[in-house]
Amino acid sequence: MKNLLVPLAIALVSAAATAQAQGPVPVHPALTDKFYIGLGAFFPKTTTEAQLTSNTTGVGGTIGFEDSLNMDRSKTVPSFFGRWRINNRWRVEAEYFEMNRSSERVIDRQIVWGDQVFPVNTQVSSKFNFSDFRVSAGYSFFRTTDKELGVGLGLHMASYDVRLSTPTGGGDGEDVLAPLPVLSVYSQFALTDRWALGARLDRFSLKYDKFDGGLTALGLDVQYQPFRHVGFGLSYRSLFIRAEIEGDRATAKFRQAFEGPMVFMNASW
Description:
This protein has 269 residues and is mainly beta.
């Protein structure tokens, strides 16, 4: 899937350029309005691997939460986003979604999670709550009425609440908040006064002290705005996170992938 993302983005840009060459310069609210907010329904498919290793014993195995613990691979979740154009070049934007899952299963293999050992045939209750809050500031180094291309600097605040337990009360868990700084490249193109395309790529990789991780995020948007202040759209979102965080008691490792479409409604003024 990731190998198709760059060609798809290039195709969107080419389509925009071709459309614009055939008529007058369009004026679309997504590129001209100062404020832009939206609410969407995100349909991600996800794969999740996590490991909690005790710093005391040094023992811990990787768990595939969908395969080993029977968690849902897909779920419909709300997404919120907004943008503020400070002036013709500078903009601030934010986006948020969360995906909370839980399950119960009698496991068919031993699981070691932190200081807790779950033997074969134990009924295990699991919880994996995740949220991502993205905020960034961008500078559009190329900007016209119908085109925009810029770079940004921001944060993905990835939050984890992961727990495994048994009906008798035994279990272990970990809360992790990982602020992941990212460099971004973004673009927007107005095809007509009502249709517009957008794309954004975030990238981060860092190994420092007790943290080692990386993040790649992509967003592709097709927007239709039939009314002056209200529009609708279809998006593709992907988010790939790899993180290893050493705490006082244990070391947590996470590897996640979210990919899927999103439909949204937006307002701008």
